[in-house]
Amino acid sequence: MTGFSRSSQTASELFAFPEGFLWGAATASHQVEGGNRGNDWWQMEQDGRLPHESGEACRHYELYSSDFDLAKSMGHNAHRFSIEWSRIEPRQGEWNEAELEHYVAVIDALRYRGIEPVVTLHHFTNPAWFSQRGGWARKDSVDFFVRYVQVVATRLASRVRFWVTINEPTVYVKRAYITGDWPPCEPRSWGRAIRVLRNMCRAHAAAYPVLHRLRPDAMVGLAHSAPYITACNPSSAADRVTARLRDFALNDALFMLLGRRSGVVLDFIGLNFYARQVVCWRPKAGAAMLLGSECRDDHHGEPRAFTSLGWEIYAPGLRKVLRRFARHGVPLMVTENGIATSDEQLRTRYLMAHLESVAEAVRDGVTVLGYFYWTLMDNFEWTEGRNARFGLVEVDFLTQQRTVRPVARAYQVVCQSNSIEWTSPR
Ligand code: IFM
C-alpha cells in the first residue's frame, strides 16, 4: 500500500530520538471530559444545530486518574490536553476556583506518574457568553482571552512548562466562518474569517509575554494544522498555482499574520499532521475557486489510501512538513497525528510509518521536541460524533469501558526505548 515508506526488504536499523523527547497522546476538553454545559458547542448541540451531542463524552472529567494510569502503562512520558475556558470563566468576569483546582489535580495526577503536561488553552470551544457577544470576530476577544490566560497561568504556571495557546486557528476559522458547520454556524464570510484569524494571532501574541512573565522558562507555541499540499499535475500551471494558493492559505497565512513577531512569540511550533491534499484547478464559484479541489483519483501511478474520514494517508508528508516548518527557526513539536479507522493493522502501520517520518526529519537536522498521537482514547469527534475512532484506547460509550488497542503496544516500545527500528531504504 502507498502512503507508507516502510519496506521489509532492507536490514533493520535503530534510530535513537534525542534525549528528553516527549512521547504521548493528545486530547481536548470538549471531546473527552463530558458535561461541558457552558460552551458554545454544548448550546448548539442542545439547540439541535449540530448533528451529534457530546453528552458525557468519555467522562474523563471524573476518570482522568485511571485514564492516566493507562497512559503510563503505555509508556507515555508526556500528555497534551486542553483546559475548558467555559469551566474556568462560566460567566463574563466570574472565575470558578473549584474548576481551577480540578485542573491543578489533573496536572498533579500527570506529574505523579512522571508524565509531562502540555496544556492547550483553547481547543475550538468558547464560553457561551463569549460567543454571544460576538466571539473572535470582536477585537476585544483578545483582551478576554488574555485575561483568561492570566488567571489560568497564575494558578498553573509553576506546574506547567509547555503551553499551546490556540489549537488549529485555520481549521477553526474555516469550519466556523467559511463552511459554517461549526459554532457559531453562521453564513460564509471571508471578511469575518480573516478578522477572526487575525484576532487569534493577536491573542496568541498577547498571551505569550503573560505566560513568560509567570514562568520565565515556559515553552509557548500554538498548534497548527499542517496538511502536505501538492499539485495534482505538476506540469499544469493552473494546478501548480492553485496548490500554491491553497498552501499559502492553509500553511503560510497564519504565520504571516503573526508577522515579524512570529520568531519572538513562538518558542516552538506545534504541528498537527494528518494527510496529503492533492490539488487541482476546477472552476468553482467565488473565492473557493482559488483554493482548487482535492483530486482523489488513482492516476498518479500508484494506488492511494484514505482513512475512514476520507483523508489521504501519506506518511512521507510528515517529514516534508517538518522540514518546511523548520525554516521558521524555532523547534517543532508534532502536537497531533493519528488515524480514524476500524482496521487495527492499518492503524499500527500508519503510526509506525509516521514515526519513521519524524525520525527522518530529526536525522535531517530538524529540532523536534516530541510526538503526540491523536488521540489517547476514542472520543467525541465534533460533527462526526463518536464514529471516527482515533484512539490508542477503544471506548465503549455505553459502559465507558476502556480497552487498550494493539497499536498502543507497538507505540509503547518506541516511547520506552526512545528509538525506532526503521526498515525502509536509507
Ligand atoms: O479531533 C480533532 C482535534 O480536535 C483537532 N485536530 C484534528 C482531530 C481529528 O479530526
What distinguishing features does this structure have?
426 residues, alpha/beta, TIM Barrel, eight-stranded parallel beta barrel, three-stranded mixed sheet, binds 5-hydroxymethyl-3,4-dihydroxypiperidine
What does the secondary structure layout of this molecule look like, with pairings?
Elements: E1 13-16, E2 22-26, H1 29-32, H2 40-46, H3 60-73, E3 78-82, H4 85-88, H5 97-112, E4 116-122, H6 128-132, H7 141-156, E5 162-167, H8 169-178, H9 190-214, E6 219-225, E7 228-231, H10 237-258, H11 262-265, E8 268-272, E9 276-280, H12 288-291, E10 293-294, H13 316-325, E11 332-336, H14 344-363, E12 368-374, E13 393-396, E14 401-404, H15 406-417, E15 419-422
Parallel strand pairs: 2-3, 2-12, 3-4, 4-5, 5-6, 6-8, 7-9, 8-11, 11-12
Antiparallel strand pairs: 1-15, 9-10, 13-14
Helix pairs in contact: 7-9, 8-9, 9-10, 13-14, 14-15
5-hydroxymethyl-3,4-dihydroxypiperidine is lined by residues 28, 31, 168, 272, 336, 374, 381.
How much is the radius of gyration in Å? 21 Å
> Can you tell me the CATH class?
Alpha Beta
Q: How many structural domains? A: 1
pLDDT average, as an integer? 94
Low-pLDDT windows of residues: none
**CATH fold annotation:** TIM Barrel
Question: How many helices does DSSP assign?
Answer: 15
SSE series: EEHHHEHHEHHEHHEEHHEEHEHEHEEEHE
- The amount of helix comes to 40-55%
What is the number of E strands? 15
Chain oligomer state: single chain
Q: Roughly what fraction of the amino acids lie in strands? A: 15-25%
Shape: globular
> Structural class of the secondary elements?
alpha/beta
Q: What is the second-level CATH architecture?
A: Alpha-Beta Barrel
CATH superfamily membership:
Glycosidases
The N- to C-terminal Cα distance equals: 19 Å
Q: Give the strand order of the largest sheet, numbering strands 1, 2, ... along the chain.
A: 2-3-4-5-6-8-11-12
Largest sheet: 8 strands, parallel, barrel
Task: Give the ligands present.
Answer: 5-hydroxymethyl-3,4-dihydroxypiperidine
